[in-house]
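Quick log. Single chain, no ligands specified.
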Amino acid sequence: MSQYWSKVVHGLTPYVPGEQPKLNDMIKLNTNENPYPPSPKVLAAIQAAASGDLRLYPDPNADQLKQAIADYYYVAPSQVFLGNSSDEVLAHTFLALLKHEKPILFPDITYSFYPVYCGLYEIASRQIPLREDFSLDTDDYLVPNGGIIFPNPNAPTGRLLVLDEIERLLIGTPDSVVVVDEAYVDFGGVSAIALVNKYANLLVIQTLSKARSLAGLRVGLAIGHPDLIAALERVKNSFNSYPLDRLAIAGASAAFADTEYFRQTCAAVMATRSVLVNDLEQMGFEVVPSSANFVLIKHLKHDARQLQAYLRSKAIIVRHFNQARIAQHLRVTIGTDDQCRQLVHALNSFLTADPPNS
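-> predicted structure:
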């Protein structure tokens, strides 16, 4: 039926999400989900919201959640934008703020949805190579452009760009919007939200999927100057005026209220990451320095796909990207202590049973 497709559809290469296995006994370390459940206060709020009021539309502005986020980050509600996942927020951002005559800039190794959005919205782009160690060189972005976007920490590398370097970008490209995608910032970084009141060209995007254990609720947000938020609202209300349902608004609001639980689970993930990195390095893996809830690893003597296949045979799933420069790497989500011990045991079994590849 492709003769009925719009012209743009033929040229699209859609984003491929990480596998969601149907088996319950798999150790799932491939999609960067939090190994810990949401805050009990979140579950209680969702249960309370599951009432007869579900027959009514939700608040199109989700003012309750905007206020909770504004209070948490010490910004005004007019500086907060909400969407059904950070992917939707990103999609609106590409259309509202990054579609210009000049190409937008993003790293060559980064979140693979960025080039998909460029194809969908017919946005010109240029991929800037990361350094050999996968760090981002801000000087490479201080050129004429239609906007800049990158994850911080970057995905799938996990490397962090410090705030001073982000500020250099904002100062050096005052006529361009700089979008900092902070899906993983709570696992070791400092949010650039601290800079939004100083720089009108900064937009920070976050998600509740990772650090707040709510991947199944689909809530994303952006924080920036009210003028940037107004552009996003125009696009949102030209697409879907009700992106967040009543349960999502209630649950997400409760998540921002339970700071203690949030900090505890983030600290637990970071502690497990530290132990796992040490174990991996002891086995001869190269581990890219990570400030995220995952690590990008490579073994010099073994093929990444063979390692991935072996782990799968042991009911452990990790992510492989068939992409230049990282084709011999695997991205491993930080699970619980027990899950990571099982991962290390499986890898050690592989390395001790098989001779190195010639």
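Residues 2-37+260-353 form a domain with the Aspartate Aminotransferase, domain 1 fold (CATH 3.90.1150.10).
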